[in-house]
Design goal:
mainly beta; about 100 residues; about 35% strand
Length: about 100
């Protein structure tokens, strides 16, 4: 799967953009990067530092880990995120169209 690391584009100098003014999607549009699809995964894992510290929970407590990989129309990965949420405050919602 091609990644943006090996391609020319706005991500080479991403720090030049003021993200208090522009969103990442504004940058995609400016450079004609069209999003095609994404893959989202939800897992239950145990928290380790720094997640347990940031979530203010005990180490090894079960948490939800969500990963998301977004691809452009050329099949390149343009965004990858991983987030952790405490099971004490978690709402999962999905819409299929």
């Amino acid at each position: 799967m091609p990644s943006l690391d090996s391609q020319e584009g706005p991500w080479e100098n991403i720090e030049q953009y003021d993200f208090t003014i522009y969103s990442l999607y504004d940058i995609y549009n400016k450079h004609e990067i069209m999003l095609a699809h994404d893959i989202q995964t939800l897992e239950i894992v145990t928290a380790s530092p720094p997640q347990s510290t940031l979530l203010n929970i005990p180490e090894n407590e079960a948490v939800f880990m969500t990963t998301e990989t977004i691809f452009d129309t050329k099949g390149r990965v343009v965004e990858y995120t991983k987030s952790y949420s405490s099971g004490k405050k978690f709402i999962f919602s999905t819409v299929m169209e």
